Amino acid sequence: MIPKKIMLAGNFGVGKTSLFNRFIHNTFDEAYFTTIGVKVDSKVVETSKGSLKIMLWDIAGEVTQDKVPRTYWLGSKAVVYVFDLTRPITWDNIESDLNFIREVLPKAVVKLVANKKDLVKQERILDAEEQFEVDIVTSAKTKENVEELFNGLAEEVYSI
Q1: Is the distance from CB of 137 to CB of 112 less than 8 angstroms?
Q2: For 4, 12, 48, 147, which has the most beta carbons within 10 A of its beta carbon?
Q3: Tens-level pLDDT at each residue, the chain (160 residues)
Q4: At 60, phi and psi to the nearest 5?
């Protein structure tokens, strides 16, 4: 079985841990718990090419190098960058964070994920999609597009 490291990144409170828990454990908790450092777990996913073990890293808060050690990024085949549809302030650093990620991991697959779809109207989603090249819109609470996100990533990174 092939293991692949995938990072979850983005601002505090955007739902990284909720996406992590929904995908790995199929659970959701309304309470907010700050991730300290990094949380790592894995899940085996069946792809069209074979079984893949996703090693999912949920890193705390910020993306910049003064907040997250560069060593955390090493070996990552993909990064899921999450922002919060309910809090436009979490949109402010998307461009610079994605540039930093692409500099640190030039060969990695990077997905921009708009989370908390269940809490906003369609207009907010359209606004986000107009401003950014959003890859997928998710809701960790309702499970919407969570499996699709990670299963699609598994297919993409299998041969990397």
Answers
A1: no
A2: 4
A3: 899 999 999 998 899 999 999 999 988 777 666 665 677 889 999 999 999 999 999 987 666 555 667 778 889 999 999 999 999 999 999 999 999 999 999 999 999 999 999 999 999 999 999 999 999 999 999 999 999 999 999 999 998 8
A4: -65, 135
What residues contact residue 120 under an 8 Å CB cut-off, 6+ apart?
85, 86
Q: Which amino acid is at 82?
A: V
H-type alpha helices, the chain: 16-25, 70-73, 94-104, 122-131, 146-157
Torsion of CA 35, 39, 44, 50, to 10 degrees: 100
E strands, 33-94, are 38-47, 50-59, 76-84
Phi, psi angle pair for 32, to nearest 5°: -100, 125
Q: Collapse the DSSP code of 138 into the 3-class scheme (helix H, G, I; strand E, B; otherwise coil) and give the result.
A: coil
